[in-house]
Amino acid sequence: MSAEPDGPEDRLRRFATIWSRAVFPVTSTSLTRAEFEQLLLPLAGRLRDLLHTRGFAAEEAKSIGSALVGAHCTDPETLARTLDCVDAYLVLYCGDDSPQDELRARSSRLQHAMAAGYAQALRERTLAEQEAIAQAALRAQGVVAQALHASEARFRAVFEGAAIGIGIADLDGNVLQVNKALLRMFGLPEAGLRGRRVLEWTHPEDAPQTWKLYEELVRGEREHYHVEKAFNRPDGTALWTNLTVSLLRDADGNPQYQLALMEDTTERRLLNLRLRYEATHDALTGLPNRTLFFERLEKALGAGEGQRFGLCYLDLDGFKTINDSLGHAAGDRLLVEVADRLQSCATAPGEMVARLGGDEFVALTTGVDTEREVDELAERIMSALVTPVSIDGRDLLVRGSLGIVEGPAGERTAAEVLRSADITMYRAKSAGGNRSELADPEADARAITRHGLTTALPTALERGEFFIEYQPLVHLGDGSVRGAEALVRWLHPQHGVLGPDRFIPLAEHTGLIVPLGRWVLEESIRQAREWRERYAGQDAAGPLRINVNLSPCQLGHPGLVQDTVDILERAGVTPDALCLEVTESALIGADDDLLKPLRRLAEMGVDIALDDFGTGYSNLANLRRLPVSVLKLDRSFTRGMQQFPADPVDLKIVEGIVSLAHSLDLAVTVEGVETAAQAEQLRILGCDTAQGWYYARPGPPERLHELALVDATG
């Protein structure tokens, strides 16, 4: 036994050798087998390159199939043997270190593209032959008038030796003469075709204009026409042909005969149908895929007046966990079972189920009463998922989130409908999953706006669309301005000024909160330095301090401490000018690793404030282990003080919190102060500082200058 080839070129030549041995016996060529192998070697090299290419160069793969036709490899067996060879040996001899499944998938796509290119080139070659034969026949007609015997001999040679079917009939449609190729196509003896009438060869799949063109030709109103037409064979199978019919005139120009040229395209059609099926159906489940679903949905949306549609968009809950724990093979089996169940739910006319990809499925219903039908379809789908799926001895519970969209045809595009269904499905998933939700235009608009803001966030920071407003922090004892809280805003080009509640959650979700938070810290520290320089030497109650909110995402960022130190040093500001506010919920159950950055900052002299205190249900005893110096009471504790008399329960709670905080050497700041009565009551209870609309709304830094100057001058 000979050794396997060592290098890539040796393996490539071995592949070309196998390919040439497979194809050479069915190839009409004057080349020797070795010369034919040299002809295939460059094509094998191009196949190897395409196998290693990341993208899929469909046209290049098609050109390889076309090159086979150019090399006179036109026997129908040539394509089958080539595809078998590529399927069996291309990955074996020309593969690299990529995963075998990926290489097999690429090889399959290459085969499809090669087959398409081969079929297209063969069709073009055949059409060229047809045209040449037709021209020869027409030329022969003219020669008949001048030299009947010579032309008859030449015409007979073309007629009998042609590889395509040829038939001649009179203008009444009686078949007068057929060649051997046509007899082979129909599987009939010559007597079975001669004498038949052309009008007997109707077929249910004839194009509407086929017989109209025929009538125009026999009346002499057109010289020829070309159609794709099917014929019934005696064995019950269909013969598909490319049919060209030409009008033959006599020497005086009068219509005399009709000449039909037929190319058998049955195998090519079957191949195209198979390729079409593979292109429009999911390989795993056999369901229609995204491509075919969109075709059906667009057709449904383009239906006439009075027609409606209903769509169910299903995403399995927890499917990733099944893949991660049991493996992708188990996940695939689960998807196949789910697909079978969904298919059984959509059996009525106008209903279909498709797999969009992953664990996402859609079901479509159409008609005039889809408001009721889509609800029933959704119920059947949710009921079909109740029964566990047994895989490898395990009973897996299958749950799904379902988004439902229903409406009249013609009002929305397919992309808009699917987007609405997708948004609605995620709304069901966010509500806990294992449920269905009906599309809501207002919820869709919010989700679309949210997505638009998310995608615009990175460029907004680069374009300088963010700015900061400052809300004063006022000492309750003497009414002096002690600092301000920095509140970031977004001046959006379309939506105007947006508050942090509109975009901070999006920034946290995308990770942009870290660079955005760093920018806010830099701007705020710069402003704090400006305030301190302006009020230096004045009789203010102390240096102004800036409070900056710190999100949980920033708290866990490894560069938090160093970024803060660098910003303070570049601005020339001491750490006591900065207070970082962290929400109570972010620190509930925080371990030492999470608290370590805050402790380092506190040791440097940066104040740490526990924001929204009282909303996180934290253990008050945990305050001793947190590196905080300020408690910020949530506004919910002070609402009861807006009325008179004040809510006694709120008074007792605030009094207790203030007493506890002061015993731990913590200052107390109160948010949401809106009336003088609130401010006075909080002062009596011993709160240290406050902020709220009673003092000033958030605004530009100049407003704080004005308030501070009033306090300093009395």
Describe the fold and architecture.
The chain is of the alpha/beta class and 714 residues long. The protein has 25 helices and 21 strands. The protein has an eight-stranded mixed barrel with strand order 13-14-16-17-18-19-20-21, surrounded by four helices. Strands 2-1-5-4-3 form a five-stranded antiparallel beta sheet, sandwiched between helices. A hairpin with a 5-residue loop joins strand 4 and strand 5. The radius of gyration is 40 Å and the shape is elongated. The N and C termini lie far apart (106 Å).
Oligomer: single chain
In the sheet with the most strands, the strands line up as: 13-14-16-17-18-19-20-21
Count all strands and give the number: 21
Instruction: Please state the overall shape, judged from the principal axes of the Cα atoms.
Output: elongated
- Structural class assignment: alpha/beta
End-to-end CA span:
106 Å
Instruction: Give helix % range.
Output: 40-55%
Q: Quick one: biggest sheet? A: 8 strands, mixed, barrel
Mean pLDDT comes to 84
Percentage beta strand: 15-25%
Query: What's the Cα radius of gyration?
Result: 40 Å
Unreliable runs, pLDDT <50, ≥5 residues?
none
The number of distinct helices, counting runs of at least 4 residues, comes to: 25
In short:
With 714 residues, the chain is of the alpha/beta class. Helices cover 51% and strands 19% of the residues. The termini are far apart.
Task: Describe the secondary structure blueprint for this structure.
Layout: H1 8-23, H2 33-52, H3 58-70, H4 76-94, H5 100-146, H6 148-161, E1 165-170, E2 175-178, H7 180-186, H8 190-193, H9 210-218, E3 224-232, E4 238-249, E5 255-264, H10 266-280, H11 290-301, E6 308-316, H12 319-326, H13 328-345, E7 351-357, E8 360-367, H14 370-384, E9 389-391, E10 394-396, E11 400-408, H15 414-430, E12 435-438, H16 441-462, E13 466-475, E14 481-492, E15 496-498, H17 500-510, H18 513-535, E16 545-550, H19 552-555, H20 560-571, E17 578-583, H21 584-587, H22 592-604, E18 607-613, E19 630-633, H23 648-663, E20 667-670, H24 676-685, E21 689-690, H25 701-713
Parallel strand pairs: 11-12, 14-16, 16-17, 17-18, 18-19, 19-20, 20-21
Antiparallel strand pairs: 1-2, 1-5, 3-4, 4-5, 6-8, 6-11, 7-8, 9-10, 13-14, 13-21, 14-15
